[in-house]
Amino acid sequence: MIESLAERLREAERTRTSISAFRETLGAGAIEQAYAIQRRNAAIRLRAGGRLVGRKIGLTSAAVQRQLKVDQPDCGLLFADMQVADGGSLALDELIEPKVESEIAFVLSRDLDRKDLTHQHILSAVDYVLPCLEIVDSRIRHWDIGIVDTIADNASSARFVLGATPRRPVDFDFIHCGMVLRGNGAVVATGAGAACLGNPIEAVRWLAVTLAGTNFPLRAGDIVLSGALGPMTGLSASCHYSATIANLGSVTVNTVARS
After folding, report:
1. With contact defined as beta carbons under 8 Å apart, do 78 and 157 qualify?
2. 3-state secondary structure of 25
3. Cα separations (Å) of 200 from 46, 87, 103, 139, 210?
4. Which of 142, 211, 242, 245 satisfies CB 3.0 to 4.6 Å to 252 for a cystine?
């Protein structure tokens, strides 16, 4: 079952054709099986030459957790070919039903491979932080997802854009920093650091503790997308998207119409 569902997701991504949800096949609480599907597809991607560059954290919003009836975040993997340059172009015909959200990206300067971690441990292991746009996409038709579906689908990840204004995390207000996301200049979403598990540092701590003791703990150089600071919004063609996070800077991307 793990292999057949993993193959369905790979084919959906390859053909840009969504598939029906499969949480009833696995069972709504089959978290470990869902992560096994995610790992299976990651292993195939790595064998094909993919380069792992970090992790993304999802389901950090209390509202989304209530919607999906879960009480924990989830995580996925970031590969080098998922990154789009700041100010670059995003080809919509490479995706299915993409949405965009803004968050803070952490770049690590040292390993985080212990379970007894505090916020101070996290901060001391961070080289710098950046504003980020995450482009999420679901291979599940019409985003009809539960926790099992999205975990198996690599936490609904697709692309990410890092800003060009690195900042040391010292004295940065991760909780109260405001975020504004615009499309062609019009505000499409707002939020703040507190929307991400109460504090994006807590989101990174959760991830580090979760991965500690596995074969793939967080390592120096990893990029960690800590979770959305506001609601995600659907992407429109031929649109300039920009996100500004207070005292951190801005990040932009341009969508290219489907052919």
Report:
1. yes
2. helix
3. 28, 24, 9, 27, 15
4. 242
The helix (run of H) or strand (run of E) holding residue 105 is strand 99-108
Q: In terms of Cα–Cα distance, which of 227, 64, 211 is closest to 143? A: 64
Span 107-134, pLDDT tens digits = 999 999 999 999 999 999 999 999 999 9
Q: Which residues pair with 112 in a beta bridge?
A: 218
How far is the C-alpha of 101 from the C-alpha of 232, rounded, in Å? 5
**Of 155, 159, 138, residue with least CA distance to 254:** 159
- DSSP calls for 64-101: HHHHHT-SS-EEEEEEGGGEE-TT-EEEGGG-SS-EEE
Residues 6+ apart with CB under 8 A from 63: none
- Bin 250: left if φ > 0, else alpha if -120 < ψ < 50, else beta: beta
Nearest one of 136, 139, 134 to 10, comparing CA atoms: 139
**pLDDT at res. 259:** 60
Distance CA 118, CA 28 (A): 31
Give me the count of residues in the chain: 259
Angle among Cα 179, 181, 186 to the nearest 5 degrees reads 130
* Interatomic CA distance for residues 163 and 87, integer angstroms: 9
